[in-house]
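A student in our group prepared the protein record below, which I am reviewing. This is what I was given:
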Amino acid sequence: MNLSTLSSLLVRSLMLSIIGLALLACSPKQSFKNVDITGGKAFGTDFSLLDPDGKVRTLADFKGKAVVMFFGYTQCPDICPTTLTEMQQVMTLLGPQADKVQVLFVTVDPERDSANILKQYVPAFDSRFLGLRPADEAALEKVTKDFKIYYKKVPGTSPGSYTMDHMAGSYAFDPEGHLRLYIKHAQGADTLAQDLKELLK
């Protein structure tokens, strides 16, 4: 290879590198209102849970959609119904884009939250919402450990009247199945709708 050819190749390689860097610089960085945990290794990246029909669901079932995942229980007096109502408002704000969002409600109280109860409770907020439950205590411990979810049974006046303390935040995955956001409780429907629109870009 002569000096002229080598020089031409080097110039061409340099130009391609410059163009590539320019394109990267022009690509808009996603900006979120909630906590951006993109690339974080501290949280779970998948799950294996049962839907109300007994089918095992994993994140792969929802590829192509942004997924919002919330942990709670159906007898929760405040945080859970508030969160699900807020998500219902978010779906309204998203309009046609709402069909590209999947809301998952994961119970931390499978002892009382049977498949039938989840089947009635969760879609009552929006027919597209899906309730999931761990198959057993080991599965509950695994998914809550993977996603750093705090939960604790608080005894009531009778064995069946206990409550569950639990973390109030949610997680959001992008349509490719990557964990992207930690959503703080009670951010407001407008804020969350903006972040989900950003994820769907």
